[in-house]
Amino acid sequence: MLTGKQKRYLRSQAHHLNPIFQVGKTGVNENMIAQIDDALEKRELIKVSVLQNCMEDKNEVAEELVEGTGAQLVQIIGNTIVLYKESEENKEIVLP
Length: 96
Fold this sequence. Notes:
Blueprint: H1 4-14, E1 21-23, H2 30-43, E2 45-50, H3 58-69, E3 72-77, E4 80-84
Parallel strand pairs: 1-2
Antiparallel strand pairs: 2-4, 3-4
């Protein structure tokens, strides 16, 4: 689990990032989870945007992504979900 201090740090790191995945009306699927998991391994911290036409609630989408990838939910702001997962091979982010 992330502490409040770690989440604040990750939020500040994520501020300048652009969402690299979009969840649309098809919702979350296995392929998307696999791609997001790969991206997390490379980048550790990513944003996922939930489009207006998504049938699922953004909180449900975040839950599915966290369960599917084993990532930590940093925050949900507007329709953007920020996820963090420590990389096995490309560790760059040092948590406070």
